[in-house]
């Protein structure tokens, strides 16, 4: 579905990504790991077209998104991609519910009634029904993060991008989010997630390990087979030290 | 100190746009403040200087025709409160008989008289403020004509009557302490005694000015009453020093006042900006402030630290403003200097603006101090209580149905939630539209023919004055005979003027000039009440009403021909003619008591007024025929010219400030909302969407502000304008608005400027790195 062909990204004179190539198929669940500052987020933003890349190209369903105009990219993000960030970002002048349906109403892919129904359904699935009319400051971090996932899903995107979605959550909230991600993936949603938490990465089907702007290693995970422990060992083998990343 | 400077420099680098905008605001305020005061200083110095050298009379009675010289001399000898007296002979010459550089001065509406230099007082001065001297064959030309007709020293002026011709060389340009202003009805040309005697044999009509200087502390009313009571020659107007001063204040002071009003507006805008910016920048510094408090730096020093930047800016702006006000002030003082000279107290033009700037700086610095102090107190409290500074803004709801114009809905929604942040920009937009409209409306009012009615002149196309002549009746009959047969005349009314006596508040009997005639045909604007309609109705000019202590509905006793009559005060109107003291009533004057006739007339649609006036002048050569529009334009020409400049400057400044403030607020808005903007981009809003949303928010604020500014200009503006005109006896005035400009073009230009600024100013949104913002 997405072909990443030799992309590089540099800020001024520092090279952050260096000739990275890989592919993402429909239904994939890719986790990106690596030391802090290694370029994980940069990779995610480059693949999703939010950052202009310095070299190479990203082909999304046959379309070279590096060549799209700003306007076209925006509509791409609106209708085909969903995003979730570390600090759940929401517009503070809207309620949780309005935040969720906003991209739906703007995209107009569906009738408003359908969007509203979908939003309620998503919220029920994420177990956050009842907080619809709250302010974003009146809910917990976990609830807010689940609400962001609802928002990301409102336009039925082709792919869901998540940048350390559990970074600011406690373990209980992390589990809830993970459960949802797994469920979504099981239903066929393509997911690309950046994380430094092996527990999160263990839910993926594939882990890419980034170091010095390149894919230093990658590992296919067996469905329900590989344990967190096994992944941990693999990472230790890559001299990954969890304590470095806090 | 070095550390502080470093801090200031770093701060400037970080907030370049905002700092620049603030600096421009402060500098402009300072320029206008200092400029207005400089103009004021120059004006006061000029007028003082001119009066000191020229020694204007305190009371002047004009008279046409012969008089009893002995009676006047006796009167002067008897009145011990007189300091000095003078009889000035003036030879009135018909405008058509004066040919300047080959062209006759027929089009000029003011009277022209030839005089010789006076002795003892009321000197005519040259351009060096020295007593002007002309030799035989030379002439001194009043500044007004030098300016208006571009007459220079060395030009030739010819007086011509039939076969007689006398050539003069312009030797000097004259400053005249009493008749300088374009508002003054006549102008004096200076020639030698020999020439005057010669010319008088061939043309012109003698007019005499009985001029008096009073001893310290004596009121002109005393002299006025004694003069009239003595039955001395009074076939002409009487003018007092108070009227000269009013005319001068209006001619030269109006511009200074307008500039000062603009500066007050700018100062208000600056202080608003300042408070907003200080709050916005300090909000980002909460952490640093907390740390400083923690390590025990006293609050005083923290205030000083943040204050220093603004103090430096204010002092810098003050200095720049003071310097820039020199050319700025000089530009708007050119007229007064040309007419009155540099003056005797030139220090005023340096000291007055300096005092103003110092006060302005102290005020702004004090405001800064207070704002920082208040903010610090609050921040510290919040830090102690561990409260977050981010307050909840409230929500807007998305529509239940489809979100059609989503940018509009979101912009309006956000505006609703964030209105508090926008109060300042709203107010600044209000003031900036006020700033454009106030001078524009004032200028438009002065330029409008209706303005005449505020000045006591009925609105009509043409006015014919038959005055100061020995055969008034015959002239009047001639005029009426002509008017009756002229098919181009739509209608006309004849008024008679005469004097009656009435008691003022102090119980003294004063002479009151009364106009008699149908006051309904060419109506005036009445402050209160209405024009006289009944037999014993009497309307008073505002100044007379004050002087005589009368209100509408009061009874007033007047004496005419030794008999008392009781009239009913039916209305009060404004007037600046005849010193602002006139009345209107149906008094049946005896022919011998009639001072003069005044005929107002309207021409038929489509008749060219100027052409027709020229025609009428040939038929009625002895009457003064004035096209009213042209008259206002000529009398107010210097004021109008200056007002035009002020209006232009104000518009440019206002638009500039609109741009600045828009840029500045966009920066602040984008900085404050950077994460929301990044988020919007992430979830699929394009740069254009975000630009549109920011633009709509600003435009909605601006549209509301323009409406408020327009209302303010019509209400508060009227009060301000009336306050200015109160110096000349006009207390109430209705601003006359040119709707096309005030309601359409101006707002359109302002909106256009904001739209363009938003488009350019928000271009940076395109280069926003979504992730940078989101990661923070
Ligand atoms: N806008 C930017 N300008 C300059 N350098 C940047 C910018 N954004 C990221 N970087 C640099 O790129 C590198 C990779 O950043 P990032 O992708 O955020 O790392 P990770 O997500 O793996 O922690 C870091 O060294 C960071 O300093
Ligand atoms: Mg990262």
Automatic annotation (TrEMBL), chain A:
<protein>
    <submittedName>
        <fullName>ABC transporter ATP-binding protein YxdL</fullName>
    </submittedName>
</protein>
<dbReference type="Pfam" id="PF00005">
    <property type="entry name" value="ABC_tran"/>
</dbReference>
<dbReference type="InterPro" id="IPR003439">
    <property type="entry name" value="ABC_transporter-like_ATP-bd"/>
</dbReference>
<dbReference type="GO" id="GO:0022857">
    <property type="term" value="F:transmembrane transporter activity"/>
</dbReference>
<dbReference type="InterPro" id="IPR003593">
    <property type="entry name" value="AAA+_ATPase"/>
</dbReference>
<dbReference type="GO" id="GO:0005524">
    <property type="term" value="F:ATP binding"/>
</dbReference>
<dbReference type="InterPro" id="IPR027417">
    <property type="entry name" value="P-loop_NTPase"/>
</dbReference>
<keyword id="KW-0067">ATP-binding</keyword>
<keyword id="KW-0813">Transport</keyword>
<keyword id="KW-0547">Nucleotide-binding</keyword>
<dbReference type="InterPro" id="IPR015854">
    <property type="entry name" value="ABC_transpr_LolD-like"/>
</dbReference>
<dbReference type="InterPro" id="IPR017871">
    <property type="entry name" value="ABC_transporter-like_CS"/>
</dbReference>
<dbReference type="InterPro" id="IPR017911">
    <property type="entry name" value="MacB-like_ATP-bd"/>
</dbReference>
<dbReference type="GO" id="GO:0016887">
    <property type="term" value="F:ATP hydrolysis activity"/>
</dbReference>
<feature type="domain" description="ABC transporter">
    <location>
        <begin position="2"/>
        <end position="237"/>
    </location>
</feature>
<dbReference type="GO" id="GO:0005886">
    <property type="term" value="C:plasma membrane"/>
</dbReference>
Automatic annotation (TrEMBL), chain B:
<keyword id="KW-0812">Transmembrane</keyword>
<dbReference type="Pfam" id="PF02687">
    <property type="entry name" value="FtsX"/>
</dbReference>
<feature type="transmembrane region" description="Helical">
    <location>
        <begin position="423"/>
        <end position="442"/>
    </location>
</feature>
<feature type="transmembrane region" description="Helical">
    <location>
        <begin position="751"/>
        <end position="770"/>
    </location>
</feature>
<feature type="transmembrane region" description="Helical">
    <location>
        <begin position="692"/>
        <end position="713"/>
    </location>
</feature>
<dbReference type="InterPro" id="IPR003838">
    <property type="entry name" value="ABC3_permease_C"/>
</dbReference>
<keyword id="KW-0472">Membrane</keyword>
<keyword id="KW-1133">Transmembrane helix</keyword>
<feature type="transmembrane region" description="Helical">
    <location>
        <begin position="310"/>
        <end position="328"/>
    </location>
</feature>
<feature type="domain" description="ABC3 transporter permease C-terminal">
    <location>
        <begin position="649"/>
        <end position="762"/>
    </location>
</feature>
<feature type="transmembrane region" description="Helical">
    <location>
        <begin position="648"/>
        <end position="671"/>
    </location>
</feature>
<feature type="domain" description="ABC3 transporter permease C-terminal">
    <location>
        <begin position="261"/>
        <end position="363"/>
    </location>
</feature>
<keyword id="KW-1003">Cell membrane</keyword>
<feature type="transmembrane region" description="Helical">
    <location>
        <begin position="348"/>
        <end position="368"/>
    </location>
</feature>
<feature type="transmembrane region" description="Helical">
    <location>
        <begin position="252"/>
        <end position="278"/>
    </location>
</feature>
<protein>
    <submittedName>
        <fullName>FtsX-like permease family protein</fullName>
    </submittedName>
</protein>
<dbReference type="GO" id="GO:0005886">
    <property type="term" value="C:plasma membrane"/>
</dbReference>
<dbReference type="InterPro" id="IPR038766">
    <property type="entry name" value="Membrane_comp_ABC_pdt"/>
</dbReference>
């Amino acid at each position: 579905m997405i072909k990443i062909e030799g992309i590089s990204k540099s800020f001024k004179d520092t090279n952050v990504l260096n000739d990275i190539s890989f592919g993402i198929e429909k239904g994939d669940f890719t986790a990106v790991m690596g030391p802090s500052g290694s370029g994980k987020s940069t990779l995610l933003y480059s693949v999703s077209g939010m950052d202009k890349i310095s070299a190479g190209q990203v082909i999304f369903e046959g379309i070279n998104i590096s060549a799209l105009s700003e306007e076209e990219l925006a509509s791409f993000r609106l209708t085909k991609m969903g995003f979730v960030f570390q600090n759940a970002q929401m517009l503070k002048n809207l309620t949780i519910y309005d935040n969720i349906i906003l991209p739906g109403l703007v995209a107009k892919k569906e009738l408003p009634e359908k969007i509203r129904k979908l939003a309620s359904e998503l919220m029920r699935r994420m177990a956050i029904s009842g907080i619809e009319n709250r302010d974003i400051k009146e809910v917990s971090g976990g609830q807010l993060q689940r609400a962001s996932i609802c928002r990301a899903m409102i336009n039925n995107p082709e792919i869901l991008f998540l940048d350390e979605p559990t970074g600011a959550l406690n373990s209980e909230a992390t589990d809830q989010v993970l459960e949802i991600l797994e469920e979504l993936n099981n239903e066929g949603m393509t997911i690309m997630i950046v994380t430094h938490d092996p527990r999160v990465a263990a839910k993926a089907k594939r882990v890419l390990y980034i170091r010095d702007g390149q894919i230093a290693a990658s590992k296919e995970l067996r469905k329900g087979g590989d344990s967190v422990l096994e992944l941990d060992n693999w990472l230790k083998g890559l001299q990954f030290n969890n304590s470095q990343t806090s | 100190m070095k550390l502080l400077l470093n801090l200031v420099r770093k701060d400037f680098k970080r907030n370049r746009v905002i700092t620049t905008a603030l600096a421009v605001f402060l500098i402009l305020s300072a320029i206008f403040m200092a400029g207005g005061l400089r103009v004021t200083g120059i004006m006061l110095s000029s007028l003082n200087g001119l009066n000191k050298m020229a020694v204007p009379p305190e009371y002047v009675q004009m008279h046409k025709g012969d008089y009893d010289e002995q009676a006047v001399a006796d009167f002067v000898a008897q009145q011990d409160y007189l300091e000095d007296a003078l009889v000035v002979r003036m030879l009135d010459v018909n405008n058509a008989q004066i040919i300047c550089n080959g062209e006759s001065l027929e089009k000029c509406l003011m009277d022209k008289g030839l005089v010789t230099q006076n002795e003892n007082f009321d000197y005519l001065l040259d351009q060096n403020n020295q007593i002007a001297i002309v030799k035989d064959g030379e002439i001194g030309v009043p500044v007004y004509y030098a300016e208006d007709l571009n007459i220079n020293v060395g030009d030739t002026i010819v007086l011509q009557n039939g076969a007689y011709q006398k050539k003069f060389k312009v030797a000097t340009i004259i400053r005249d302490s009493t008749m300088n202003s374009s508002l003054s009805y006549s102008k004096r040309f200076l020639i030698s005694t020999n020439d005057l005697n010669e010319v008088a044999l061939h043309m012109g009509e003698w007019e005499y000015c009985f001029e008096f200087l009073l001893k310290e502390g004596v009121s002109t009313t005393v002299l006025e009453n004694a003069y009239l009571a003595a039955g001395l020659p009074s076939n002409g107007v009487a003018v007092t020093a108070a009227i000269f001063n009013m005319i001068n204040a209006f001619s030269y002071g109006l511009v200074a006042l307008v500039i000062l009003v603009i500066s007050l507006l700018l100062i208000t805008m600056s202080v608003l900006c300042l408070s907003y910016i200080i709050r916005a920048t300090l909000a980002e510094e909460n952490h640093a402030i907390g740390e400083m408090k923690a390590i025990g730096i006293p609050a005083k020093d923290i205030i000083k630290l943040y204050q220093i930047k603004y103090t430096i800016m204010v002092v810098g702006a003050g200095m720049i403003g003071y310097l820039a006000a020199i050319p700025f002030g000089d530009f708007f003082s050119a007229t007064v200097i040309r007419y009155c000279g540099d003056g005797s107290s030139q220090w005023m033009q340096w000291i007055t603006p300096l005092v103003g700037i110092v006060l302005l700086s102290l005020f702004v610095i004090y405001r800064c101090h207070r704002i920082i102090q208040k903010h610090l107190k609050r921040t510290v409290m919040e830090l102690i209580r561990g409260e977050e500074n981010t307050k909840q803004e409230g929500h807007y709801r998305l529509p239940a149905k489809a979100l059609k114009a989503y940018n509009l809905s979101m912009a309006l929604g956000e505006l609703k939630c964030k209105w508090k942040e926008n109060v300042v920009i709203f107010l600044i937009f209000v003031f900036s539209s006020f700033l454009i409209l106030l001078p524009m409306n004032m200028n438009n009012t002065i330029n409008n023919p209706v303005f005449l009615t505020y000045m006591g002149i009925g609105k009509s196309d043409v006015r014919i004055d038959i005055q100061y002549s020995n055969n008034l009746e015959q002239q009047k009959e001639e005029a009426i005979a002509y008017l009756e047969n002229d098919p181009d005349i739509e209608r006309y009314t004849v008024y008679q003027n005469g004097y009656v006596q009435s008691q003022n508040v102090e119980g003294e009997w004063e002479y009151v000039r009364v106009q008699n005639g149908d006051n309904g045909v060419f109506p005036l604007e009445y402050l209160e009440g209405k024009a006289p309609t009944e037999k014993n109705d009497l309307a008073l000019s505002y100044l007379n009403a004050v002087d005589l202590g009368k209100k509408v509905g009061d009874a007033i006793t007047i004496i005419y021909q030794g008999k008392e009559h009781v009239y009913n005060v039916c209305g009060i109107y404004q007037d600046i003619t005849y010193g602002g003291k006139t009345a209107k009533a149906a008094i049946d004057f005896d022919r011998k008591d009639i001072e003069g006739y005044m005929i107002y007339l309207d021409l038929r649609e489509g008749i060219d007024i100027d052409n027709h006036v020229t025609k009428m002048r040939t038929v009625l050569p002895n009457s003064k025929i004035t096209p009213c529009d042209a008259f206002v334009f000529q009398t107010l020409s210097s004021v109008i010219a200056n007002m035009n400049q002020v209006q232009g400057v104000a518009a440019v400044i206002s638009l500039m400030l609109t741009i600045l403030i828009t840029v500045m607020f966009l920066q602040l808005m984008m900085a404050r909302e950077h994460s929301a903007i990044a988020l919007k981009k992430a979830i699929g809003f394009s740069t254009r969407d975000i630009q549109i949303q920011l633009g709509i928010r600003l435009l909605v604020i601006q549209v509301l502000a323009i409406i408020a500014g327009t209302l303010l200009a019509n209400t508060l503006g009227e009060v301000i304008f009336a306050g200015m005109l109160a110096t000349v006896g006009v207390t109430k005035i209705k601003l006359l608005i040119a709707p096309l400009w005030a309601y359409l073009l101006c707002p359109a230009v302002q909106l256009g400027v904001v739209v363009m600024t938003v488009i350019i100013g928000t271009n940076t949104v395109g280069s926003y790195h979504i992730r940078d913002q989101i990661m923070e």
